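Give me the fold.
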Amino acid sequence: MPTEPSNPAVGHDCSSARSPDLSRYLSGLYILLGGGGSNLQTTRKREIRLNPNPFLGVVFHWTGGASAASCYLPFRAIKHWSWEIYWLLQGVFSWIVAPAIFAALLVPNWFSTISHASPHTLLLARFWGAMWGIGGLTFGLGVRYLGVALGYTIALGFSTAFGTLMPPLFAGELGAIASERSGQVILLGVAVCIAAIVVSGLAGLHKERELGASHGQVREFDYRKGLLVATFAGVMSACFAYGLADAKPIDLLAQTQLAQHNRSDLWQHLPGLVVVLWGGFTTNFLWCAFLLIRNRSAAQFLGRSPQGQIPAQTLAVNAAACAAAGLLWYFQFFFYSMGETKMGHYSFSSWTLHMAGTILFATLWGVLLKEWRGTGRGTKLLGTAGFLLLVLSTIIVGYGNYLKAHP
């Protein structure tokens, strides 16, 4: 796809711009769904983007959200392995193997691109990736003390707010964004997304209370401790967005390679994503290694467990399930990176779309797996309201990007 260099000013005056017709936005979204056609502030001034296409960006982000919501399903097939065994193995696939393979296939000289980035850029990208890894590890602890509904709501709510708003805030752009009509629409979409997460969390809380202990009542409920842990997990999980922002100089180097080989700029973020994921793998590897030593579970890799020898067929199924889970996990940010290239100047809103898409498809999986069977009418209405608000938030954010791309 041909590229058109652009360098839109952050404070561009839109007061005289023609207001686009909302129906054009919705019809464009329909056509595409049917298959039709820090470093941050200085980097944004130099960044060359594809022609913005928020409709396609939303589709990419929804695809990534579907992948994120599905990545834990293959774990259901794993037997006789401790958590640290299969989590580490899927991490090798999702954070090391898959990113390198796809970067090598789609970006010429991808490793050379990374090696030519400054040490400062590489350090920041890996650092934020490692911090995100800490957030992911503590996320489970928050769910342990609060339950799935409250734990997810608090953690994802903070992750959405911080991951969306902090990059432009630290870049000194948030004030300019809030002064434009298009930016105001996007910020409204962010607020709707956070409200949707709260409503979905309330629905989940009612579900837990109605279904009782057999369906996941929290035995170690501790609101004060859980609130602190879930808040910390949400804030730290947003660090992934910071890592992608600080990896922008790597994106610029990748753009040069792609242009020289007549490749699409759609893949410009893949080398930077590799570096951020290196940081995430580091944190998770250290924790899993600690658990392997403490629990003396490393022998399970070779089929030996306290219950006896694990059959070779079971080991093969376990490994295949880890590979599938790892690939699905990686695809969430593979499509995230594609969607970000299509969101135009307000690419910071990609994090909101990613969070909304993940929860949206996780809700659909819950319905398909009959997790809401036995709940009351009010609980189901709350769940439906949260779902519809998530859809609405993606439309609002996409429309705000459309306003900016088509003044």
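The chain has one domain: 72-405.
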